[in-house]
Amino acid sequence: MQDVVIAGVGMTPVAEHWDKSLRTLAVEAIDAARNDAGATQIDAVYVGNAFGAAFSSQTHLGPLIADHAGLSGVEAYTVEAADASGGAALRAGYMAIASGLLESVLVVGVEKSADRVGAERVEARSMALDADFEAVHGATLTALAAMLMRRYMYEYDVDLNAFEGFSINAHANGKRNPFAMYRNTVRAGAFAKAPMVAEPVNLFDGAPDGDGAAAVLLTSVPMAETLGISPVFVRSSAAATDTLALHDRSDLLYLKAVAVSTEDALRQARIDRSEVDLFELHDSFTIMSVLALESAGFIGIGQGWTFANDEHIGLRSPLPISTFGGLKSRGNPVGAAGVYQAVEATLQLRGEAGENQVPNARTALIQSIGGLGSTAISHILSV
Amino acid sequence: MQDVVIAGVGMTPVAEHWDKSLRTLAVEAIDAARNDAGATQIDAVYVGNAFGAAFSSQTHLGPLIADHAGLSGVEAYTVEAADASGGAALRAGYMAIASGLLESVLVVGVEKSADRVGAERVEARSMALDADFEAVHGATLTALAAMLMRRYMYEYDVDLNAFEGFSINAHANGKRNPFAMYRNTVRAGAFAKAPMVAEPVNLFDGAPDGDGAAAVLLTSVPMAETLGISPVFVRSSAAATDTLALHDRSDLLYLKAVAVSTEDALRQARIDRSEVDLFELHDSFTIMSVLALESAGFIGIGQGWTFANDEHIGLRSPLPISTFGGLKSRGNPVGAAGVYQAVEATLQLRGEAGENQVPNARTALIQSIGGLGSTAISHILSV
């Protein structure tokens, strides 16, 4: 097995890109990553995309994107795991290099959700739930997240305002990120005054879907040396699943896939949690940040909400999260989200995060989640 | 890099399975493959599926299928490359084992198209074409295949009836396959009398979509030895792409991706074409069989149609194709088609093909195609 490194990164802003198509966004991110690496040889393009069919009436993105990126002919296909598609594509790329079969793989995550609005968007998004036992009854991702949050509040006797620190932190970081979708400040007391979306999930709680694309160029070490770049190493890669339907879980408030993939990633990288300098988690809802922190073992069960403050998760805290705004402020580009995490963590580890720099960042854990923990894919990056 | 073997195979009949859901079909194939191998340890489930969103309103198949197969928790995600999704999932599984990261991967291809009929089916299928430049104008896969066929007939002065030998061969083999969708005999003269679908593609020319699932268990050699089975080796794996839109190709009648992936697969396996004992190609339309045979280098350009007879492609010929009926007679389970090829080729190489046995089959080339050659993924299997 050969070592895998990130030799180049690129991304587009997350926004409602009315003037750009799915392929245009993907090509923009690919071009940026190739320029960053100065790479000419590309052996394959792996696409992370969750809703091309439902959002853009477009599947078969591999040859489409490879061709439009000027790489027609190379191996290319799509990897899908709902919102964890980006993480899954990254893992596929990791395996391709690790196996020694390929020397350089472009992993691009791309999503264009703005073309479907309102009920159409919700219907499309619900395809990633259990169609026969959840979506058919009208359950939506937000409604199910609300049930998790309500259960958590009941079990641990926690108030709604205990969660808002995650949104405050995300926006505090996102407001300095020119690629972020919502750069407004969220202030203490926001949750109490916010309109409800699916009680208790409110307007300032859930991450907004956005259009965007991010790309990382994975290479072998010799290839990175040829390119003359200082690589970021992909130290480990781990994937796990849980039931798709929430009602099939014995414990709603424990994300088994998060626990397994985190443990596996740490074990492979031979590090413990104290060595993680930043954790890009999947903050699709504040309850997901809470459950991810607990299930990943960074805090005890029932205590994740106590991390919702600058002291625990801010840029200068022991465990910075959402350092460029996370899904909440940077925006959730769905199937691209996991690749955005890789790009942002790479910038941190290179010391190129500007105003959002985590001091002395040497090791990052990134974790891409599909649904409400049905898929969890973790990677550890380090310099 | 470690060697990769097929330790177990399973499949469902290809049919209109009105009484079975997508997950049920997948689990049936997985159970069959696991029983075949006698395997208990499964590290991952890779799903080949092309149209889960459009046909079944269901994406995120990894955790869904893993859970329902009794494997909840294992790594699982979907690989998509239109009709080549099965081949792409097989390649992802190959890389996972080859890298040494995993020891046993279930690759399951599954598709359920029967729930969408008529215009809905066509609209769904057209998502795998170029949505912005082909599908938007009303182009369909069949209509574009018809244009290729017409061009071929014009360029090489070939009559419609020159193609029917491919359908005759497929049905001659498929009628002895209990898993085949259409087991009727196609007789000489059929094309001349057939109703047209998109002239010159007629009722007996194009492969019918069907529901079905197929699974192969890929393992390392040590794992196969532990299981005590006689493995079939995956000698090589190669993927290539061409433009998604037909109008972007400089030569419509040369499938570049087929040429590249075939050449690469042969080179990796260190064999030449004469050593291929059977070729499971993607006979979605007779013109695709012609172009695949030519582009893969088994016959000269413009001469592929001369292979349309028992002497060249029958079970006892030098290059048997569609040995269990191919997509034409066995049916086209779309995203599962590439995995069906792997299952069928494995049965051939094990000498378990019954009445469809190719004598002394030692080496098989299987080739999964997406669209009209936009993706081509080739594997060479041998004993």
Structure overview:
The structure is a homodimer of 383-residue chains. Chain A has 383 residues and is of the alpha/beta class. In chain A, 36% of the residues lie in helices and 18% in strands. Chain A has helices at 22-37, 52-56, 61-68, 85-98, 118-126, 141-156, 164-174, 190-193, 221-227, 256-269, 286-295, 310-313, 326-330, 337-350; strands at 4-11, 44-48, 75-80, 104-111, 196-198, 201-202, 212-220, 232-241, 278-280, 363-370, 375-382. Chain A has a 9-stranded mixed β-sheet with strand order 3-2-4-7-1-8-11-10-9, sandwiched between helices. A two-stranded antiparallel ribbon of chain A has the order 5-6. In chain A, helix 1 (22-37) crosses helix 3 (61-68) and helix 4 (85-98) crosses helix 14. Chains A and B meet through helix 2, helix 3, strand 3, helix 4 and strand 8 of A and helix 2, helix 3, strand 3, helix 4 and strand 8 of B.
Summarize the structure.
The structure is a homodimer of 383-residue chains. Chain A has helices at 22-37, 52-56, 61-68, 85-98, 118-126, 141-156, 164-174, 190-193, 221-227, 256-269, 286-295, 310-313, 326-330, 337-350; strands spanning 4-11, 44-48, 75-80, 104-111, 196-198, 201-202, 212-220, 232-241, 278-280, 363-370, 375-382.
Largest sheet of chain A: 9 strands, mixed
Radius of gyration of chain A: 19 Å
Question: Taking all residues together, what is the mean pLDDT of chain A?
Answer: 97
Q: What is the oligomer described by this structure? A: homodimer
Proportion in helices of chain A? 25-40%
Topology:
The structure is a homodimer of 383-residue chains.
Chain A lengths: L3 E8 L10 H16 L6 E5 L3 H5 L4 H8 L6 E6 L4 H14 L5 E8 L6 H9 L14 H16 L7 H11 L15 H4 L2 E3 L2 E2 L9 E9 H7 L4 E10 L14 H14 L8 E3 L5 H10 L14 H4 L12 H5 L6 H14 L12 E8 L4 E8 L1
Parallel strand pairs in A: 2-3, 2-4, 9-10
Antiparallel strand pairs in A: 1-7, 1-8, 4-7, 5-6, 8-11, 10-11
Helix pairs in contact in A: 1-3, 4-14
